[in-house]
Specification:
The protein has 98 residues and is of the alpha+beta class. It has one domain. It has 3 helices and 4 strands, in the order E-E-H-E-H-H-E. The chain has a 4-stranded antiparallel beta sheet with strand order 2-1-4-3. Strand 1 and strand 2 (10-15) form a beta hairpin. The chain is globular, with a radius of gyration of 14 Å. The relative contact order is 0.28.
């Protein structure tokens, strides 16, 4: 499953499991589709950033994964969404995902 975050300033598509985690970190239920109004975006962005600070820089290595693949932290996966939320908040746009 893929989830696309849509605003008037741009769109971002993420894998479903990562997107649902981001939605939860923003303080919303993991329901798809969903939305955050423009007036609530700054709070959602601050919640996401605060939650990411509590996560470790790198996820624990899975024993079954190939050793040559680098692990990507949730913080790095969140960077495009953080940029989108910041731009949407400055532009006064709503955020929707499906």
């Amino acid at each position: 499953m893929l989830v696309t975050f849509k605003t008037d300033v741009g769109d971002i598509t993420m894998f479903g499991d990562v997107a649902l985690q981001m939605i939860k970190l923003m303080g919303h239920s993991e329901t798809v589709p969903g939305a955050i109004l423009a007036k609530d975006l700054p709070l959602a962005l601050s919640r996401l950033k605060a939650a990411l600070l509590t996560h470790k820089a790198a996820p624990p290595a899975d024993e079954n994964e190939d050793e040559e693949k680098p692990a990507i932290s949730i913080t790095h996966r969140a960077l495009p969404l953080i940029s989108l939320l910041d731009a949407a908040a400055r532009a006064g746009c709503d955020l929707m995902w499906d």
